[in-house]
Amino acid sequence: MSTSAEAIPSxxxxxxxxxPNHSTLEAVARYAMLSNVRGHFDTFSGTxxxxxxxxxxxxxxxxxxxxxxxxxxxxxxxxxxxxxxDVEHHPKITFRSTGVExxxxxxxxxxxxxxxxxxxxxxxxxxxxxxxxxxPWGNTRAGIFARTTIHRKDFGANWNAVLETGGxxxxxxxxxxxxxSAIKRKTDQGTPETLTDASxxxxxxxxxxx
Length: 210
Prior knowledge:
10% helix; 11 strands; single chain
């Protein structure tokens, strides 16, 4: 198992941009103490900066809170309200890492500040590195899965309704899961690798057929 002081393979060192078109960011909450409701955010961005060692590596993610999508408009509007995310006053949800450490073969723990409703709490992401490889459009991609659990009341989202049979309508715990496809920036440009018009059109066609 590697440690924060051990060197990272050179092909991983650099800045990786999360590709929102091929990534998902989901939240799962307990509903009526019987089932789970899953929602995802349609708009988010982020960068993963891999240094020479884990101690030099960082992760930053920014989420458009209003982009929550559970498939039910009335529920989504309630989640955007002051009862939950209060997107009018706090439009962004952010995560900024403060530390990265190895946790096994291709597994890592990433600590950082998670900000929701203007409140920042320390959380820890359990991260699984899925590998790297080229895509058909000249990009180098990395696959990453991460998860954590937060408690919404820690961020001032206290709304609930008591059930006639006992218990509450909405659980306090939120499971957050990220399935990330990240694109490595070209070192000679210092900017994200971009698709040409032709390759972008080809990618769109490929995605439509898959």
